[in-house]
């Protein structure tokens, strides 16, 4: 696993993202409130440049009329078909074919009605080393 | 539109595809509000500035439901030079036509002059859009062909526009929308069908439109997702009307393309129509054959959005009923529910059917070499 310096910390302030290609693979690195996240910039659904989507939160509902909005700025919404992925884990939410996947019982998240989908976007480890943002790949 | 995209990633553009395809639903957009002015008489430019546009629908400032993504479009489709998605030919070439090996792209402009209460203005705007399609698109890229946009609520002026464009190789079909003031089989629209049949041009019926009626048969729904599925209900009503009013009987050479409303519902609609027709035939004696026959002979279907059943074989059952020679591949670029050509057709399709699906059917229908 090689380490790639991608930017001095000052060049990736909170709220920004950077796109780059490492060994022919498209990567995006995000700074969200001082935390860094990396994702492979390719949507596992139909292959869109996933990271060009907006960062949103996760809307969930126990009952009609009750809405909980959490993980603000931690969910990326694909620029094509709007599938949602948790940028911490790459986990997709609400895949239409989720019922095929037996490994995801409905109580994965107690009280949650948003079911995690089987698609997972590839995540990339990002760290800060002596004031540089570094990606491990 | 003030959402501009930050630094973007070139990296994910697909590699050039080998399979040649047709894309039968591309939406070109205007870069600026006044981009049509050079094609509009001064009288109408002035009219637009002073009075604006009065649509049949109540909400004047835009479509009845927000569209999930800005301009209902892919967020990675903003042209680098600015302007809304779909407004730049060079970017469309780079993002859609070249990498996907598109040999034929059919343009279906939306938000044109259709569904406007002032019929003279409607006709003027539609005609301007047609000139603009030639100037900005088809004359600059031979892969692109335009749809003749017509002022649909005034059948006579719509027919005049079709006759004026007939024989012009820039155009390959006439464009109507599914939501109109009345169901599409009604007599007011017949001059359009007559002119199209004479010109040998198919009629494309694209989902959407501003007819002033609720967007579902049971009223105005709460959510955009209901509008999305409502398109197929609307298209079903339009198709039933076309059959039962006798449009297909009266215009036997007319070809209709159902655009962007799915096709999984086609067999069940046809079966239901056949069944009630056997019992109620005497109400509509002008419908001389079982409705399904007209549908199978005179209707084509674009693929986007394709139904996505859990068992892919279910999809094949539907297509086998419709006919592999009736589907026209479409991406719906640049809209957000875009279909990626390399990812839509599951494995297990014969080479001949695959070729027909991606290119052959479109070439045959639109008469492109
Ligand atoms: S390509 Fe990302 S949701 Fe379809």
Could you state the order of secondary-structure elements of chain A as H and E? EEEEEEEEEEE
Q: How much helix, percentage-wise, in residues of chain B?
A: 25-40%
Low-confidence stretches of chain A: 98-113
Rg of chain B is 20 Å
Q: How much is the average pLDDT of chain B? A: 93
Q: What topology does this entry show?
A:
The complex is a heterodimer of chains A (137) and B (369).
Chain A: E1 3-8, E2 17-22, E3 25-32, E4 35-40, E5 55-60, E6 68-77, E7 84-86, E8 91-93, E9 116-120, E10 123-129, E11 132-136
Antiparallel strand pairs in A: 1-11, 2-3, 3-4, 4-10, 5-6, 6-7, 7-8, 8-9, 10-11
Chain B: E1 21-26, H1 42-51, H2 89-97, E2 102-107, H3 119-138, E3 144-149, H4 155-165, E4 171-177, H5 190-199, E5 203-206, H6 224-244, H7 247-250, E6 256-259, H8 266-280, H9 291-298, E7 299-302, H10 312-322, E8 327-328, H11 341-344, H12 351-366
Parallel strand pairs in B: 1-2, 2-3, 3-4, 4-5, 5-6, 6-7, 7-8
The complex binds FE2/S2 (inorganic) cluster.
FE2/S2 (inorganic) cluster binds at residues 43, 45-48, 78, 80-81, 83 of chain A.
């Amino acid at each position: 696993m090689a380490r790639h310096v991608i930017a001095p910390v000052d060049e990736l302030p909170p709220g920004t993202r950077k796109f780059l290609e490492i060994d022919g693979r498209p990567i995006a690195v995000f700074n969200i409130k001082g935390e860094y996240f990396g994702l492979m910039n390719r949507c596992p659904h139909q292959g869109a440049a996933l990271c060009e989507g907006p960062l949103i939160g996760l809307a969930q509902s126990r009952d009609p009329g009750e809405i909980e909005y959490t993980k603000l700025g931690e969910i990326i919404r694909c620029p094509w078909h709007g599938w949602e992925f948790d940028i911490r884990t790459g986990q997709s939410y609400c895949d239409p074919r989720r019922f095929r996947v037996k490994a995801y019982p409905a109580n994965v998240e107690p009280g949650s009605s948003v079911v995690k989908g089987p698609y997972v976007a590839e995540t990339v480890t990002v760290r800060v080393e002596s004031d540089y943002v570094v990606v491990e790949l | 539109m003030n959402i501009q995209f930050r630094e973007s990633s070139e990296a994910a553009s697909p590699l050039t595809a080998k399979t040649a395809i047709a894309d039968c639903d591309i939406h070109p957009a205007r870069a600026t509000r006044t981009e049509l002015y050079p094609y509009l008489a001064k009288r109408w430019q002035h009219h637009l500035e002073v009075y604006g546009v009065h649509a049949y629908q109540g909400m004047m400032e835009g479509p009845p439901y927000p569209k999930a993504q800005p301009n209902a479009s892919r967020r990675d489709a903003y042209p680098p030079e600015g302007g809304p998605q779909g407004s730049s030919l060079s970017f469309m070439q780079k993002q859609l036509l070249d990498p996907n090996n598109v040999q034929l792209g059919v343009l279906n402009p939306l938000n044109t002059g259709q569904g406007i209460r002032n019929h003279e203005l409607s006709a003027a705007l539609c005609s301007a859009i047609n000139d603009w399609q030639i100037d900005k698109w088809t004359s600059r890229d031979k892969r692109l062909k335009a749809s003749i946009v017509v002022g649909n609520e005034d059948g006579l002026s719509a027919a005049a526009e079709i006759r004026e464009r007939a024989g012009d190789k820039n155009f390959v079909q006439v464009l109507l929308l599914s939501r109109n003031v009345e169901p599409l089989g009604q007599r007011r629209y017949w001059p359009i069908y007559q002119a199209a049949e004479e010109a040998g041009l198919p009629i494309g019926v694209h989902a959407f439109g501003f007819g002033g009626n609720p967007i579902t048969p049971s009223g105005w729904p709460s959510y955009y997702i209901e509008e999305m599925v409502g398109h197929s209900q609307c298209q079903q009503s339009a198709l039933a009307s076309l059959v039962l009013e006798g449009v297909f009987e009266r215009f036997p050479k007319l070809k209709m393309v159902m655009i962007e409303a799915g096709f999984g519902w086609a067999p069940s609609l046809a079966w239901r129509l056949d069944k009630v027709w056997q019992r109620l035939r005497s109400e509509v004696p002008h419908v001389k054959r079982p409705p399904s026959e007209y549908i199978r002979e005179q209707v084509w279907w674009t693929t986007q959005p394709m139904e996505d059943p859990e068992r892919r074989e279910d999809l094949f059952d539907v297509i086998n009923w419709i006919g592999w020679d009736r589907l026209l591949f479409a991406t719906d670029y640049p809209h957000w529910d875009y279909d990626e050509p390399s990812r839509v057709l599951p494995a297990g399709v014969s080479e001949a059917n695959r070729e027909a699906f991606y290119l052959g059917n479109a070439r045959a229908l639109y008469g492109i070499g």
